[in-house]
Amino acid sequence: MWANLPRILTLVVRGFVLTLAVLTAVVVIRTVTFPSYQTSPPECKTTDPDFIPADEERLARFTSAIQFQTVSYERGVGTPQELAKFVRFIQKSFPTVHSSPMVRRDVVGNYSLLYRVEGSDASLQPYMLASHLDVVPITEEANWEAPPFSGQLKDGYIYGRGTIDAKHSLMGSLEALEFLLSRRHQPKRTLYLAFGHDEETGGHFGAKVIGDVLTQRGEKIAFILDEGSPVGDGLAPGVSKLLALVSVAEKGFLQLRLEVNEEGGHASMPRSESAIGILSKAISKLEDNPHPNMFGTGPEARMMEYVATEMTLPYRILASNLWLFSPLVAWVYSRKPQTNAFARTTTALTRFNAGVKDNVISPEAVAVIDHRIHPMSSVEEVMEFDRKVINDPRVKLNVINNRPPSPTSPYGKDSPTYMMLQETIQQIYPDALVTPTFMVANTDTRHYLNLSSAIYRFNPYVMTPSDLPRFHGVNERISVQNYERVMNFYYHLIVNMDKPLELKRHGHEDEL
Ligand SMILES: CCCCCCCC/C=C\CCCCCCCC(=O)N[C@@H](CCSC)C(=O)O
Ligand SMILES: [Zn+2]
Ligand SMILES: [Zn+2]
What we know:
Pathway: Lipid metabolism; fatty acid metabolism; Amino-acid metabolism
Protein name: PM20D1 protein
CATH topology of the largest domain: Aminopeptidase
Cofactor: Zn(2+)
GO molecular function, one term: metal ion binding
CATH superfamily of the largest domain: Zn peptidases
Number of strands: 19
CATH class of the largest domain: Alpha Beta
Largest sheet: 8 strands, mixed
Shape: globular
CATH architecture of the largest domain: 3-Layer(aba) Sandwich
Bound molecules: the ligand CCCCCCCC/C=C\CCCCCCCC(=O)N[C@@H](CCSC)C(=O)O, zinc ion
Radius of gyration: 26 Å
């Protein structure tokens, strides 16, 4: 036995070296032969004479739109008077849209707006552009560089709540339509514009009703485009070019109310555990035990493949070989909040309430957890995980609201609508890569799922990592350049949708 040891060791080392050599060879071959999913940009139209400039008049309209304080607070609790004023302002600001015989406008659920622009070819399925009228409340008002409802123009940026979420797309799509109709252009394909008034609190009285109205009309929609992920500048690790993130799916959500009820009493005679202490431990366990890393199991893996050939070398090797490096990429993604959101179901503690007086032991403690569910997980799985982690029957878990992750819409060369979107994005951003991904937050599209199987969530503006905290945060703003891109993106999209949407498969063509 001992005599054979050198031979055995040699064989083991040889086996190891051989395996390493084979793995390295496979990794190298895959890296250099990995297919490119990017197509060259079409002829750029933004230099055409019919480009929409962000001139004084349009910027003034956008500024005014920001000044309406259309805040949504809680489900069913909004700002009806501001919404009504904003609706009147929209009507006055886009006279051609509102007087055209081609346009039917319905006010739905009191304040939401549904426009139908009649196309000349009734055989073509309509499509829909969506956004919303409402905004979230202001936080830390003292830290804003310009008053949050001013729409003030400062150093090339328009400041205010709603500038990126989402009055840019509401006003931008209406500007595009006004521009088009004022040139007496009738689209071939019927187009809907749908603007809910309570997206920020779930869309139960706005988008839900719009969805019901269209369902009752028996409408089937070729594709829907709502607010969503942006064109990232430095957002994705290893990608130096602009990266247009088209969300073909959306995370689910689960909002849970955690409640502990214990005996209260005089603060001079406390028991060893209080309602506050028990709930704090539960919360702390949830924060210490994140939901499992699922990177590589959902549409996020496709995102890596779509950009693999364009990445800097170390990332290119990783992205071309997810079969081997998925756990490593998963770890890299889990290190920053914005990429971690793609790797797992997230857990945000959004409310914590207890106590009424300094010397009274509170009999009750309540917290709210907002989970965003990874597309490959489920509401049930998340509940089960939380229960196991908390492992304390004194902590009651009540569901406030929930929604499973959305289905994934078609993407890639087999999907004419996705390709039309990609082409339009490339007209505005000729140097950008375009990739499917999923939306880490939620949109009104949850109410439109039965209207279309092709639902995309995309914001046609550029965002850097330092811009991300502006969503629902302090100093929300959009650059004039970005707002101009938004208007022209919608304009180009509407023009492009007059071209036939063709499925080019197996040598035959079908039109939607
Ligand atoms: C690897 C790529 C990294 C890219 C990282 C960043 C991508 C960031 C993407 C999107 C951020 C934009 C978020 C906008 C959210 C707008 C929608 C919204 O606010 N929805 C509400 C709905 C409330 S319903 C109760 C929400 O809370 O989700
Ligand atoms: Zn929004
Ligand atoms: Zn929002």
